[in-house]
Every structure is written in structure tokens, then in C-alpha cells.
């Protein structure tokens, strides 16, 4: 007899009754009456021409044939479940990634480079979150949550991948220099408005600023520290581009603006202040990334390495 001719409702009723050897429990799981389960099992037995249960006054018990059929049905259900999973995998959406990064770094360094990832590799839906909070990275099935952070570490309970270090130096709009005598020494900054980023970071106290730069340049007693502070590099940079002051800039977030010429370095490659902070990619310490997320991590580390070799080496 072909399996497709057997009544599926009867097979289901039998499978449930076989698990507990109880028509009553099977009825409860199926949402029908015990009498309905009994009739469906009897229908299946009639079709097969063999008894599957031994009936007793106090209940039913699987016989040898019933045990074998129950085993075969369970095996078939496992294959069906595996087939469903395969079908779901084939239609599953593109793997996903949630990447959290400092706002200005995200806007000014990472975003301009993501188009290259999409063009060269792709195959990953990337959501971006502008944040400095130390959220916990996690693998999430077909995706992941990762974080880029600017700090000194240590980074507990995560794996830290070094991206690059940082250096700070003054930048301003070319128009600002055209309106005044170009500074030739750090002491000339006394005649300009200094713009400073008040870093919104869990480790902001360790980030050097104008005070440290002026100390290193030996003019702290000649130049008043700045009174204009901004919570984001992008805000201070907009003011600098508009010619409203000189900004102490972090190289990764200002590099593209220097290359485009909207900002310049009034002291050239002199008077550069090394930062103790580094940019780190944080990933979960346990588990594995999906192939698509792993490709993104490899790409990001390669981009960071190339940037570190070229831009940072020149600026130091």
C-alpha cells in the first residue's frame, strides 16, 4: 500500500497516541476527544490490516508492529523537519550586521568606505549605530552585533582587533589663513579662535586636547586654551570649514577633508600630538561569525591596515 493513500489525520493521531500510549493524552494535544483519536487509530489499523495497540480495560499498549510504525513515523517527521529547515535557509534574507561606532568616526571614516565593500564583496545587510556606549557584541544566528570603540582598553569579555592609532594636529579652512597672517609658530594661535572636541567617550578623560598640544608645543603660557567645545568632531569640523576657528583634529576623521582641500594644516606635518587612544573592533569572545560577517571583518581589518600604513605613517 502506498504511503500517500494512508489517512494523514489517522497517522497523526497514532503518532501522538504512541508517544504516551494514551488516547486521552493524544486527544488533549490534538484538541479533539479521546473517542475521535480511537476512531482514527482504528481507521489506520483497518487500512493496514493489522492491530497497532493492545486494548485493555485500563488503557492501551503498543504492540511490536505499533512500536515499529511509531519509530518509522518519527524518523519521517525528522526528515520533514530537516526539509523545512533547508527550505527556510534557501529563502532566508541576506545575512545581517549591526555595527556600533563613534558618531564622527562612523560618518567621516567608515561611511565613505562602505561603498567599496558593497561593490567588492557585498552579501551583507549592514545597520549602523552611532554610539560610544560599551554595548556587548554578540553573534546573532545569521548576523552579528559588533562595535568599534576609541579608547585605551582593556576590553573585558570581548575580542579586540586593533584598527589603528591616532594623532592630533591643528586644521583650518584655507580661507581663514587668507584673511589673516598665516601662523608660522604655535604662539601665533593666540590670535585665533581654537575649537576643541569634548569627546563623548567612556574614557574621555584620557583623550588629549588643546591643553596637551599647547604644552607639547611649549606655548601654554602664551595661548589661552579654547572656550568653544563640541561633543562631536563633525560639529567642530563644520565650524573649521566655515572659517570660524582652528580645530585640533583626529586624523582618521579629518583625513578625507584634508585630501579634498576644504581643510589644511597650518603647520604642515609639524607639531603632531600622539594620542594614547586607539580604534578597536570589538567582537564576541565566544562563538563564530557567519561567513558573510567574517568577510566584512577581514575587509575592515584590511582597510584599517592600509590606512594605518599610509595616512598615519605620514602624519606621525
TrEMBL record:
GO terms for molecular function: DNA-binding transcription factor activity; sequence-specific DNA binding. GO terms for biological process: DNA-templated transcription. Residues 6-63 form the HTH lysR-type domain. The keyword Metal-binding does not apply. Keywords: DNA-binding, Transcription, Transcription regulation. InterPro entries: LysR-type_TF_proteobact-type, LysR_HTH_N, LysR_subst-bd, WH-like_DNA-bd_sf, WH_DNA-bd_sf. Belongs to the LysR transcriptional regulatory family. This is Transcriptional regulator, LysR family.
Amino acid at each position: 500500500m502506498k504511503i500517500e493513500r494512508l489517512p494523514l489525520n489517522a497517522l497523526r493521531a497514532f503518532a501522538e497516541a504512541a508517544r504516551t500510549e494514551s488516547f486521552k493524552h493524544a486527544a488533549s494535544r490534538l484538541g479533539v476527544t479521546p473517542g475521535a483519536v480511537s476512531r482514527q487509530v482504528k481507521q489506520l489499523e483497518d487500512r493496514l490490516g493489522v492491530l497497532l495497540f493492545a486494548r485493555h480495560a485500563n488503557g492501551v499498549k503498543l504492540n511490536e508492529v505499533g512500536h515499529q510504525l511509531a519509530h518509522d513515523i518519527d524518523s519521517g517527521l525528522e526528515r520533514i523537519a530537516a526539509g523545512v529547515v533547508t527550505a527556510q535557509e534557501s529563502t532566508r534574507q541576506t545575512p545581517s550586521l549591526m555595527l556600533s561606532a563613534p558618531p564622527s568616526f562612523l560618518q567621516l571614516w567608515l561611511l565613505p568606505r562602505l561603498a567599496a565593500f558593497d561593490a567588492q564583496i557585498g552579501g551583507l545587510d549592514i545597520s549602523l549605530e552611532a554610539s560610544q556606549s560599551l554595548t556587548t557584541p554578540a553573534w546573532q544566528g545569521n548576523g552579528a552585533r559588533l562595535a568599534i570603540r576609541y579608547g585605551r582598553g582593556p576590553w573585558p569579555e570581548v575580542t579586540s582587533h586593533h584598527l589603528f592609532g591616532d594623532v592630533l594636529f591643528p586644521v583650518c579652512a584655507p580661507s581663514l589663513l587668507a584673511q589673516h597672517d598665516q601662523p608660522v609658530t604655535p604662539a601665533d594661535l593666540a590670535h585665533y579662535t581654537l575649537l576643541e572636541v569634548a569627546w563623548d567617550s567612556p574614557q574621555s578623560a584620557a583623550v588629549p586636547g588643546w591643553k596637551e598640544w599647547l604644552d607639547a608645543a611649549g606655548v601654554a603660557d602664551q595661548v589661552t586654551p579654547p572656550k568653544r567645545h563640541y561633543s562631536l568632531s563633525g560639529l567642530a569640523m563644520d565650524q573649521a570649514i566655515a572659517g570660524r576657528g582652528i580645530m585640533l583634529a583626529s586624523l582618521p576623521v579629518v583625513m578625507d577633508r584634508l585630501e579634498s582641500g576644504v581643510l589644511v594644516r597650518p603647520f604642515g606635518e609639524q607639531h603632531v600630538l600622539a594620542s594614547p587612544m586607539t580604534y578597536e573592533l570589538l567582537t564576541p569572545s565566544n562563538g563564530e561569525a557567519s561567513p558573510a560577517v567574517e568577510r566584512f571583518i577581514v575587509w575592515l581589518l584590511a582597510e584599517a591596515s592600509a590606512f594605518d600604513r599610509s595616512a598615519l605613517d605620514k602624519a606621525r
